[in-house]
Amino acid sequence: RVWAWWAVVAVCAAADVGWDLESCTESDLSCRNPPTLSIIFITKRPGGYDVLFESLSRQTSNDYELICIDDLGEGERRPAAIEMAREKGVPLTAMLKSKPKVRGKRFGQCNAINSGLALSRGAFITVVQDNVWLPPSFVHRTLSFFLGKGQMGRDVLLSYPERRFAAPEGRLSQ
């Protein structure tokens, strides 16, 4: 079984991200129109991209962007992940390390989330951690929840309605 948790935030204010965005390539920052949902993927350990990209490639709704904050992404990992996203048709908007901090180390879960929030363009934002498998209806159900389908909609969802589920057979062997 795969356990996943994530927080969803409804509003993101523009912020000074602390990076030199002028030096980012087109694969770092997309010029597409903003999607409704921004998915922020945070990681600092090896692996996880294959599972994430595979599950995102099977979504029933494509109204999302993916922002990867990868504090391990050294060497060949970043280009390989960008290529994998392209091959799977995943709309990868940005793949960067966390923004510099005033004190202490660059790393940290909160700093990674804040870095992703600063780059997100969606009206709604969800944060997922590494080695997460998202069910095919994840984007659709998340947007349906926020848009309310005839209701006023909602501001914050602290966990996804499907907290525990099994990954497809053969996807996660260990």
Care to describe what's here?
It holds the Pfam family Glycos_transf_2. It comes from Hemiselmis andersenii (Cryptophyte alga). Residues 1-18 form the signal peptide. The chain is of the alpha/beta class. It has one domain (2-19, 30-99, 111-158): Alpha-Beta Complex (Spore Coat Polysaccharide Biosynthesis Protein SpsA, Chain A), CATH 3.90.550.10. The protein has 4 helices and 7 strands. A 5-stranded mixed beta sheet has the order 2-6-3-4-5, with helices on both faces. The chain has a two-stranded antiparallel ribbon with strand order 1-7. Helix 1 runs parallel beside helix 2 (77-88). The longest helix has 12 residues, at 77-88. It is globular. The termini are close together.
SS-based class: alpha/beta
What is the terminal separation in angstroms? Answer: 10 Å
Strand order of the largest sheet: 2-6-3-4-5
Provide the helix percentage: 10-25%
Count of alpha/pi helices? 4
CATH superfamily: Spore Coat Polysaccharide Biosynthesis Protein SpsA, Chain A
Order of helices and strands: EEEHEHEHEHE
As for the CATH topology, it is Spore Coat Polysaccharide Biosynthesis Protein SpsA, Chain A
Compute the number of strand runs. Answer: 7
Q: Tell me about the largest β-sheet.
A: 5 strands, mixed
**What is the number of independent domains?**
1
What value does the Rg take, in angstroms? 16 Å
- The CATH architecture would be Alpha-Beta Complex
Uncertain runs: 1-29
